[in-house]
């Protein structure tokens, strides 16, 4: 059995996912450079000695504010949005039983969790509204792979279910190794955007009143 990660490991992973370390580093380097510039330029313009000290103190006090904003918000193609709080239960290893890690989003539609790995490491995103997958920067789930179409597939909520739809991609969309055009998503599945492409592991957290997707529905031809 895999060992459950400690609270510190969970916190560090969440800080990394929310880019808190990156934001803090960029802010610190920028503030340091700006402080050095202020120390040189402000006296040249006749500013009093205390002006430099005030500038440096203000820059230092801005660091925790930047960290808090990085934790609470995420920059997306649609602008700056609030990052949702995730369930603290770890994801289970393949083949194990029980509940998988999801993000607790309250609403009538539920949510879709997408997890995948690439050369940069492990990634995870959670969506509560329609999102597109593709190579174009405008896609909510952007994948930088030349074999993936710019606008490859779309996941949306309709008729009480989450659906995946191929957007006329060059190499097709495969749901659990079966090429699809538009089908409802089961609770857990794997999506590939070409045969040898990276596996996107989708976990649907449906609303309490949502209908159940059966194997018969997935086998039947759907528009």
Topology:
Blueprint: H1 7-17, H2 20-44, H3 49-72, E1 73-76, E2 79-82, E3 111-118, E4 121-127, E5 131-134, E6 141-142, E7 153-158, E8 161-166, E9 173-175, E10 178-180, E11 182-184, E12 188-192, E13 200-205, H4 215-219
Parallel strand pairs: 5-6
Antiparallel strand pairs: 1-2, 3-4, 3-13, 5-7, 7-8, 8-11, 9-10, 9-12, 12-13
Helix pairs in contact: 2-3
Which percent range describes the beta-strand content? 25-35%
How many distinct helices? 4
Uncertain runs with pLDDT below 50, 5 residues or more? 84-107
Main β-sheet, spatial strand arrangement: 4-3-13-12-9-10
Instruction: Label the overall shape.
Output: elongated
Q: From the helix content, strand content and strand pairing, which structural class follows?
A: alpha+beta
Helix content: 25-40%
What is the residue-averaged pLDDT?
77
Main sheet summary? 6 strands, antiparallel
> In sequence order, what are the helices and strands, one letter per element?
HHHEEEEEEEEEEEEEH
Distance between the termini: 42 Å
Radius of gyration: 23 Å
Q: How many DSSP E strands?
A: 13
């Amino acid at each position: 059995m895999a060992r459950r990660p400690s609270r510190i490991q969970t916190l560090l992973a969440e800080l990394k996912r929310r880019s808190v370390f990156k934001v803090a580093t960029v802010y610190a380097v920028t503030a340091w450079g700006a402080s050095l510039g202020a120390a040189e330029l402000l006296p040249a313009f006749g500013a009093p000695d205390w002006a430099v000290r005030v500038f440096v103190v203000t820059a230092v006090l801005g660091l925790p504010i930047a960290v808090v904003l990085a934790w609470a918000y995420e920059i997306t193609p649609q602008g700056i949005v609030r990052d949702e709080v995730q369930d603290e239960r770890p994801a289970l290893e393949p083949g194990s039983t029980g509940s998988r890690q999801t993000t607790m989003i309250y609403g009538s539609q539920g949510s879709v969790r997408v997890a995948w790995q690439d050369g940069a490491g492990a990634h995870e995103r959670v969506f509560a509204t329609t999102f597109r997958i593709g190579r174009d920067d405008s896609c909510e789930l952007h994948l930088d792979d030349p074999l993936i179409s710019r606008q490859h597939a779309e996941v949306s909520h309709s008729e009480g279910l989450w659906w995946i739809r191929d957007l006329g991609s060059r190499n097709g969309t495969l749901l659990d190794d079966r090429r699809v055009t538009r089908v409802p998503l089961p609770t857990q599945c794997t999506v590939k955007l070409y045969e040898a492409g990276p596996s996107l592991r989708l976990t649907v957290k449906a609303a309490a009143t949502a209908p159940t997707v059966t194997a018969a529905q997935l086998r039947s031809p759907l528009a």
